[in-house]
Amino acid sequence: MRQGLSRLVLIVCAGIMLAGCNAATNQSLSDSFGLKDGTGAGADAFAAAPADGADASQSAAFGEPTPEGKLLGADPGDDLSTGKAYFRSGNYGMAERYFRRAVEQHPNDAEAWLDLAASYDHVKRFDLADRAYAQATRLAGVKVEILNNEGYSYMLRGDNARAYAKLNEALRRAPGNPYVVSNLRLLQASAAQSKAIE
């Protein structure tokens, strides 16, 4: 029994590490999905699923321009980019610090709030993650990547019902999105393993 539980924990941890589904990745999700330039280029799944019936170009703005007119994260030395570098290296405490500075300096940047929420998830400050996700949603509207990350957050907490609800809503908005599909598979595998142990 203990050996089976140990295997389950190892499988779930490996799956979570492999899923790589939070926003702070090698390049920002909003860049990957064409959310910052408003074209939706390179992100057919997101371009086809605008938040509330608007076309993709109207709902695409995800970042706040800096005083120099650049988008936050465009400069490799700014707080958002530095936070992403720490996040990719697994240093979630430092990532949180820089993402928090980014939202303090640019409170209307939804991407910075989303990345802050992801870092809070990894340091298990789910109360703060919920607030950051809510702020990102207030600024950007209901976006697939926010729903996906919220689903992942609930998965980390062991709240499978809420995780399914968020991920299924994301999948409804962007059928076939690989990040959402990956998280749903991970969640299903985790639930199946939990039932097998009971």
Describe the structure.
This protein has eleven helices and no strands. The protein has one domain (about 1-25, about 65-195): Serine Threonine Protein Phosphatase 5, Tetratricopeptide repeat, CATH 1.25.40. It is about 65% helix and about 0% strand. Helix 9 packs parallel to helix 11 (about 180-195) and helix 10 packs antiparallel against helix 11.
Topology of helices and strands:
Blueprint: H1 2-19, H2 29-32, H3 44-47, H4 56-59, H5 79-88, H6 92-105, H7 110-122, H8 126-140, H9 144-157, H10 160-173, H11 178-197
Helix pairs in contact: 1-11, 5-6, 6-7, 7-8, 8-9, 9-10, 9-11, 10-11
Low-confidence blocks of residues:
8-21, 25-61
Q: Specify the CATH architecture.
A: Alpha Horseshoe
Alpha-carbon distance between the two ends: 10 Å
Oligomer: single chain
Radius of gyration: 17 Å
Under CATH at level 1, the class stands as Mainly Alpha
Encode the helix/strand succession as letters: HHHHHHHHHHH
Strand content: under 5%
Helix residue percentage:
55-70%
The CATH homologous superfamily: Tetratricopeptide repeat domain
| Number of domain units | 1
* Annotated CATH topology: Serine Threonine Protein Phosphatase 5, Tetratricopeptide repeat
Label the overall shape: globular
Mean pLDDT: 75
